[in-house]
Amino acid sequence: MVGKGTWWMVSAWNEVKLLRVLQAVDTEAAHIVRFLESFQDSACTYLVFELLEQSLFEFQKKNNFSPLPVRHIRTIVAQVLVALAKLKELAIIHADLKPENIMPVDHAHHPFRVKLPSPPPSPTPLLNMSAPENAHIQIAKLLRKY
């Protein structure tokens, strides 16, 4: 859910635009969380994604932050790099990469298969509509302070 107000409306509009670009991607192969739809009422814009139970941070917390074996770390990092490569191909920068934003898909059936959510909305997205490759909307997400 995206709140109300001018900044939020612009941010929600840019986020939906970005997510529509990502809808054309094979999210399973790209290891990116699937965007399903968006809708709005008079107060908010709602973004609907595939349901994923927890983040890598929550998974580690549940396991008392015990270290993962190197083979599992390699598996996770390889998938994150595939997702980042796809985002780079689309000229999208994910500037909020952290364990809270790495989502295990279904640990019981697919151990250590992960996906990245789309980059978070930024107060100042950069749209480069004059780029030669007009087919793609180039959006750079700026690092947010939190």
UniProtKB/TrEMBL annotation:
SMART domains: S_TKc. Gene3D superfamilies: Phosphorylase Kinase, domain 1, Transferase(Phosphotransferase) domain 1. GO terms for molecular function: ATP binding; protein serine/threonine kinase activity; protein tyrosine kinase activity. Coiled coil: none annotated. The keyword Nucleotide-binding applies. InterPro entries: Kinase-like_dom_sf, Prot_kinase_dom, Ser_Thr_dual-spec_kinase. The lineage of its organism: Eukaryota, Metazoa, Chordata, Craniata, Vertebrata. This is Protein kinase domain-containing protein. It comes from the Eukaryota. GO terms for cellular component: cytoplasm; nucleus. Keywords: ATP-binding, Kinase, Nucleotide-binding, Serine/threonine-protein kinase, Transferase. The keyword Transferase applies. Residues 1-146 form the Protein kinase domain.
